[in-house]
Structure formats: structure tokens, C-alpha cells
Amino acid sequence: MSRNRLSNRRCGYRAVHVDAEECCDEVRQMWQPNVAAPLLESGKLVPELTLLSSPYRFVIMPLVEYILKVEREHPDSQIAVLVPELVVKHGGRRAPQPAGLNC
């Protein structure tokens, strides 16, 4: 399948970013080279990127509201939520991280 045809197709997965720090533009800019382009190059479909605004650094409620909205719109679909773990430095030591992750 050609790259153009793939770029117009979406998979059933969505990537959701809850923006508590007004960095939506940065997330959009990082999305293309770090997520979309590698997936397209490997022949995979790109998940839709959804950005949710969140006042006062609330993360859970905007995410839950979004999930409930998607559930109402697609009542026959299964919804799974994967939440990444935040790794915090302690005492000068760092927890192991996946290769290529620069934090």
C-alpha cells in the first residue's frame, strides 16, 4: 500500500494528551517525527492524536470525561486505557529507561 494511502487511513486507536501546561503546540510538533512518521514508514496505521485542555493541572477528570464521551459515541466498542508511568529521579540515581528515551 502506498504511503499516501496509509497517511489517509486511521486505525481504531487514539492517542490522548491531557494538556495541563499549555504545550499542545509542542506535542503536535513532536507527534509527526516521533510517532506518525515511524509508524507510516513501517507500514502501520497512525492513531488519531486528541489533545484535551485541562485547567488547573487536572488530568484524570478530562480524561474520564473524554472516555465516557467516546463510550457514548461507540457503545459497541471496547475501550482500553494505557497510562504511562512517570519516572522521577531520586538521590542522583535513575530508574532504568527504554533505549532511546532521553529524559
Task: Explain what the structure shows.
With 103 residues, the chain is of the alpha+beta class. It has a domain at 3-73. Helix content is 36%, strand content 17%. It contains 3 helices and 2 strands. The protein has helices at 3-7, 24-41, 60-73, and strands at residues 10-19, 46-53. A two-stranded parallel sheet has the order 1-2. Helix 2 (24-41) links the parallel strand 1 (10-19) and strand 2. The longest helix is centred in the N-terminal third of the chain and has 18 residues, at 24-41. It is globular. The termini are far apart. 1% of the residues are buried. The model is unreliable at 1-9 (pLDDT under 50).
Q: Could you give the topology of this structure?
A:
Elements: H1 3-7, E1 10-19, H2 24-41, E2 46-53, H3 60-73
Parallel strand pairs: 1-2
| Separation, N- and C-terminal Cα atoms | 35 Å
Mean pLDDT: 79
The total strand number stands at: 2
| Strand residue percentage | 15-25%
Q: How many helices in DSSP terms? A: 3
Strand order within the widest beta sheet: 1-2
* N to C succession of SSEs: HEHEH
Proportion of helical residues: 25-40%
- Category from helices, strands and their pairing: alpha+beta
Described by its quaternary structure, the protein is single chain
Shape summary: globular
> Largest sheet at a glance?
2 strands, parallel
Cα gyration radius (Å): 16 Å
> Spans of 5+ residues with little confidence (pLDDT < 50)?
1-9
